[in-house]
Design the sequence.
């Protein structure tokens, strides 16, 4: 009997024939990466929902040397604080920022790829004109805030999360893309949803091995929603972009100092005028700015409600400034609000938006000055929490609202302890060339809203309610969705 040389393959065995070699390659790649990192101790478990405890343990056990946090995608080598300055000095071809972000957010599937040079320059354009822009919109804020909070003169228990998120997304849109789009609910929702869908899509994709992501992406509703958000952004942006292009052809047109213009002016090869490129860039800017700012503000409000003794000093400072400025809240004077500035720095120190900072990917094998050797293709980071343990602050585990004002006064160095100032011990906005370029704008936005709330509302937690603990997913912060705070409109002459 003749035996056929090639037996016909069933569907299952064909699938197995394709998948098996892939599994084997993936297994050996993972093993080889792991064996390269075998010298480092591992702290924590890969499936931890929250890496806070592991990071605290790691910093306690290895304060001066590196260890591994077994984060998803690939493990992260956590470096000691002594290497901050060396990390920030490395060029992109040694320690890459962009590639690390692309990896962590699976940018190929979540559409998060951007030209960071262009994004930074666009954000800087806003920053240079931030006082002018924010003064323009300060008077609109009164209306927006009371609409968002929706409380009267009687105490009301309120969940502020959605209200603050919408408010921040709207103010950011007002500054980034103009009044018309900022008032469009579909635009604001698309910007907010993009971030949420990216986070969920990344988590879901990570349930599958990397080599299956290109297939699994088509099965995930979140990836479809991301594409729909982009389509909505582009549709809504089109008339605004068309009008901008027409205006730019006019000889005396004064360019607006917004993100649309930043992307047009700074995108490589004139791509900023292309609708899809603009849409993607605006969504990425929305991702970088919306949840980070709203969570920072929510935390500040929780700290305010939990520390009622801070209300009067903060109000006194504000009222003095308003009097000096002739009865108006002027953005240019915000740096003089030293108590509020210190309060925000302390609030962010206790609750940063990410447990890790200075995340990079090694492009080549890198030997650090303390002898730590990290192989090429490795994720590295430094914990933000080091500032709480660095030995320079008294009672670092206690919230002390005005500690940075006192420190600035005592050392005669006001700038060193300002909210927006980054240094090796203050990594809440990163540090070095890749430190958050939006922090100057964010600081003004947060101060403007906080000032309004301080002047026009009373705030506290209901009796017996404590300040809620911040929730973390992996190393990222997650808003605590269940918290309610008590608010009421202030009546002149009472407090
Ligand atoms: C309070 C609010 C904010 C916080 C806490 C925050 C925090 C951060 C942090 C920790 C980084 C990483 C820095 C590093 O890796 O060294 C970052 C980067 C970045 N942020 Fe922010 N951010 C905030 C608001 C904003 C806003 C409003 C914008 C835009 C207007 C913005 C735009 C960016 C951009 C573009 C980057 C990437 C910079 C680069 O890689 O060169 N951020 N931010």
Sequence:
């Amino acid at each position: 009997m003749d035996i056929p040389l090639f037996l016909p393959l069933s569907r299952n065995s064909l699938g197995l024939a394709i998948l098996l070699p892939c599994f084997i390659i993936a297994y050996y790649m993972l093993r080889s990466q792991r064996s390269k990192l075998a010298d480092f101790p591992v702290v924590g478990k890969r499936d931890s929902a929250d890496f806070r405890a592991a990071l605290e343990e790691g910093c306690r056990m290895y304060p001066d040397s590196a260890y591994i946090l077994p984060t998803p995608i690939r493990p992260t080598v956590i470096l000691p604080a002594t290497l901050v300055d060396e990390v920030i000095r490395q060029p992109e071809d040694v320690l890459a920022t962009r590639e690390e972000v692309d990896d962590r957010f699976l940018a190929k599937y979540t559409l998060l790829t951007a030209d960071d040079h262009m994004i930074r320059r666009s954000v800087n354009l806003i920053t240079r004109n931030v006082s002018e822009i924010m003064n323009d919109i300060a008077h609109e804020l009164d209306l927006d805030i009371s609409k968002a909070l929706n409380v009267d003169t009687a105490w009301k228990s309120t969940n502020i999360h959605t209200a603050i998120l919408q408010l921040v997304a709207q103010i950011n849109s007002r500054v980034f893309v103009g009044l018309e789009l900022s008032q469009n609910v579909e635009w604001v929702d698309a910007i907010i949803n993009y971030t949420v869908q990216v986070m969920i899509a990344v988590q879901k994709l990570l349930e599958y091995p990397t080599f299956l992501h290109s297939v699994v992406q088509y099965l995930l509703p979140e990836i479809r929603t991301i594409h729909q958000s982009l389509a909505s952004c582009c549709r809504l942006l089109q008339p605004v972009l068309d009008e901008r292009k027409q205006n730019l052809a006019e000889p005396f047109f004064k360019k607006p100092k917004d993100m649309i213009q930043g992307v047009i002016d700074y995108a490589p090869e004139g791509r900023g005028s292309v609708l899809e490129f603009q849409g993607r860039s605006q969504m990425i800017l929305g991702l970088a700015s919306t949840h980070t700012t709203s969570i920072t503000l929510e935390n500040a409000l929780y700290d305010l409600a939990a520390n009622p003794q801070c209300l009067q000093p903060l109000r006194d400072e504000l009222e003095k400034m308003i009097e000096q400025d002739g009865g108006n809240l002027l953005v240019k004077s915000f740096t003089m609000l030293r108590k509020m500035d210190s309060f925000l720095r302390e609030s962010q120190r206790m609750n940063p938006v990410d447990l890790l900072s200075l995340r990079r990917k090694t492009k080549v094998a890198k030997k650090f000055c303390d002898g730590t050797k990290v192989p090429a293709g490795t994720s590295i980071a430094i914990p933000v929490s080091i500032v709480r343990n660095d030995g320079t602050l008294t009672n670092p585990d206690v919230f002390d609202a005005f500690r940075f004002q006192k420190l600035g006064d005592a050392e005669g160095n006001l700038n060193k302890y300002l909210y927006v100032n980054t240094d090796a011990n203050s990594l809440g906005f990163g540090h070095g060339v890749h430190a958050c370029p939006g922090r100057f704008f964010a600081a003004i936005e947060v101060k403007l809203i906080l000032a309004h709330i301080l002047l026009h509302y009373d705030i506290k937690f209901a009796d017996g309610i404590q300040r809620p603990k911040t929730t973390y997913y992996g190393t990222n912060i997650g808003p605590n969705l269940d918290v309610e705070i008590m608010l009421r409109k202030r009546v002149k002459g009472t407090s």
